[in-house]
Specification:
This protein is an alpha/beta fold and 405 residues long. It has 9 helices and 20 strands. β4 and β5 form a beta hairpin. The protein is globular. It binds S-adenosyl-L-homocysteine (SAH). The site of S-adenosyl-L-homocysteine (SAH) has 18 residues, from α5 and α7.
């Protein structure tokens, strides 16, 4: 039988604005910016983008189902995207993290999507397990190849696949692995042990790599958790939106008098209890859990005061149109938190909304602090951790401000 005829290369032309953005290093081309496409294409095909003068501009992964139609892999001089190129990209991500972690931290991000040159793909390490999460169907047809390189370079015990919920095709094609399946060692098998226990700054935590948000743990907050540990001595601590108690366990080891975990999810609070048990030897202090909507609880329990309050809510703005409403919500939440803060207390207010800038969050929190009429000192702000680099504006989601009252 004859092999299928080789398809002509997928060629695109884009709007002048998109051209400028690509030249400036932006990794996304939206469907609306595509002016010209020579043929229909499958998710994951390489698309070559040419500029107005018909010169090579960039090459990226095509995704017909996503508003982000092309995720740029390489822009500038023409280059072949072959296995040598991919292996170099992997090596660059590994090199970037060299020396960041010692043997006390075996949970961290190895590849952070676009900002590491792997658009729409994340790789997290939890001890000897790797979790590969994809946010675009474009990766499906390449998983076998990619997990092969990752396996031979990083030698994990297993690689688990997670797929973002909004993917159109992932899991629907019999040829491709599904969410929660192993990519290595036995492809297609269900991941056997869950949750997995890993180390962060010498503390033990569980990660629900099969069902948890992101890849099972908020690895992105490690640096803020470390900062909280250093501020906790002799303080009563409220960890609002605690999830599995990450901030709380650090605070306990840091010498907190007591810790309160507040979260709407019983599942998260049960995990927080287990995380305290896992660290009973080094992170010891009375700890309670309260299952409630944080806004309601903070609004209704004015008499409870704390010396250190952490507010780390989920994103309030999933899209740009929700930005103003989100800023108001951050302001309101900070005000609620400040009402519970004892004199000399510390407020740590975080946001993980990419649509809300760091300045917008910081200003909102400071407006609330001014409203209380109390004197305050903004003594620290933080952004992304070094294993979660953000190289373009849309990738900058995490920020936090520390106020002392
Ligand atoms: N600080 C955590 C991550 C927080 S994730 C860490 O470092 O690991 C956000 C958490 O907020 C989730 O656990 C979610 O269950 C919880 N949540 C969402 N809406 C809430 C609400 N209205 N009130 C209280 N908790 C809420």
């Amino acid at each position: 039988m004859n092999a299928e005829p080789k398809k002509p290369r997928l060629r695109l032309r884009v709007s002048p604005v998109a051209e400028t953005q690509i030249r400036a290093g932006h990794p996304w081309v939206f469907a609306g910016s595509i002016r010209d496409q020579n043929r229909a294409a499958e998710p994951g095909e390489l698309a070559v983008i040419y500029d107005r003068k018909d010169e090579f501009l960039a090459v990226g992964l095509f995704d017909p189902d996503s508003p982000i139609r092309v995720r740029i892999l390489h822009a500038g001089k023409p280059r072949v995207i072959d296995s040598a190129w991919w292996k170099t990209q992997l090596e660059k991500a590994i090199e970037r993290r060299r020396g960041l972690f010692d043997e006390n931290t075996n949970g961290y991000r190895v590849i952070n999507g676009e900002s590491d040159g792997w658009p729409g793909l994340v790789l997290d390490r939890y001890d000897s397990t790797l979790v590969l999460k994809i946010y675009s169907d474009a990766w499906m047809s390449r998983l076998k190849e990619i997990s092969g390189w990752i396996q031979s370079r990083l030698q994990p015990r297993q690689i688990v696949l997670r797929t973002s919920r909004n993917l159109e095709r992932a899991g629907k094609h019999p040829e491709f692995p599904r969410d929660g399946e192993l990519l290595f060692p036995k492809r297609g098998e269900k991941y056997p042990e869950n949750p997995i226990i890993f180390l962060e700054s010498g503390l033990r935590f569980e990660a629900d790599v099969l069902r948890g948000q992101k890849t099972g743990f908020f690895l992105d907050q490690r640096e803020n958790r470390r900062a909280v540990e250093s501020l906790a001595r002799g303080r009563t601590v409220l960890n609002a939106f605690s999830f599995s108690g990450g901030f709380s366990v650090y605070a306990a080891r840091g010498g907190a008098i007591s810790v309160t975990n507040l979260d709407i999810s019983a599942h998260a609070l049960a995990s927080a209890k287990r995380n305290f048990d896992l660290n009973a030897a080094t992170a010891r202090c009375p700890h309670e859990t309260i299952q409630a909507n944080a806004f309601d609880w903070l609004g209704a329990n004015d008499r409870r005061k704390f010396d250190l309050i952490i507010l780390d809510p989920p994103s309030f703005a999933k899209r740009e149109s929700e930005r103003n409403k989100a800023i108001e919500a951050y302001e309101k939440l900070a005000l609620l938190g400040l009402r519970h803060l004892s004199p000399g207390g510390i407020l740590v207010a975080c946001s993980c909304s990419a649509h809300v800038s760091a300045e917008e969050l910081f200003d909102a929190v400071k407006r609330s602090a001014k409203k209380t009429g109390r004197r305050f000192d903004e003594f620290q702000t933080t952004r992304h951790a070094p294993d979660h680099p953000a190289t373009f504006k849309e990738a900058e989601y995490l920020k936090a401000i520390y106020l002392k009252i």
